[in-house]
Known about the structure:
5 helices; Arc Repressor Mutant, subunit A; single chain; mainly alpha
Amino acid sequence: xxxxxxxxxxxxxxxxxxxxxxxxxxxxxxxxxxxxxxxxxxxxxxxxxxxxxxxxxxxxxxxxxxxxxxxxxxxxxxxxxxxxxxxxxxxxxxxxxxxxxxxxxxxxxxxx
Length: 112
């Protein structure tokens, strides 16, 4: 029943958390999420669209990495605004966990 849109509802939170762990480029963010989140499903385009929105919201900034051969890469970093948003996401997710646990407990009671 869950679709990709619902699965990526918290994509900004996961991107901000990844960037709080260290600055990196979009492709590395995607790889990190695939490796660290069980059953993560998202296309790379969604990562870049979300990064653009976070940039518009002043939650992330970027610089160009031209140290390697090949095309320059945008290296994203979290800002103070982004850290505040990350705190807000944490609070939101904690509340959702309580609500979802309540649902699961009631569901299990119903099934008995």
